[in-house]
């Protein structure tokens, strides 16, 4: 039986819910029209009519066993031809999906950094899709598992493409500059590999500041000790005053203090023979 018997037009009446009018819908092509399509008498009968009509009418006229067997296999061949027709359409859509996915992968590989985890993953996906494309060149059948895998890969590629589309399309100079920076960094010697360049600059600047501050520490040590000694004496004087509630501390005003040298002058404190700031290191 010729494959031209495969139906290509099946129209059904459908009611439009908004206008409550009847329109016609082609269940195979998805075409819709308000006019009643004129069926061409030369067109073959649809598959449903072919099976139902011929089975009920023609088979009643068959009396010989051989004729019945022949009719049975003719029906099987018709179903086989229809399945081939539908499968060929599915294979065509799968091929188009693979081609779109490969084009998207090429875009991702152009912007991905070589020898990275993402780059290697894109290469594996490209190898898988290329193998399936070559297989479908000479075969018209594919397993459901492989088909689901192709769809998952296509969706993953689309998600990655949406990510890179968020960036400006004129950012090629930025990517090129980054690649140059990475190549230059590979050639530069690194004294401390565990530190970033910014951290190394901080370390070097801190070392320079430490050497400068070491001299300042020695120079300011005596003045710091002197200030501590004066604050100590100021605190001891406040403690020794009789009425604490009348004490008024004015931090901005300075007053000369005599050093406490005897226990009679201040029995609450340990006598200090020499001030701290006059001691030599």
TrEMBL record:
Residues 199-216 have a biased composition (Basic and acidic residues). SMART domains: WW (SM00456). InterPro entries: WW_dom, WW_dom_sf. PROSITE patterns: WW_DOMAIN_1 (PS01159), WW_DOMAIN_2 (PS50020). It comes from the Eukaryota. Residues 11-39 form the WW domain. Residues 191-220, 257-281 are annotated as: Disordered. This is WW domain-containing protein. It comes from Theileria orientalis.
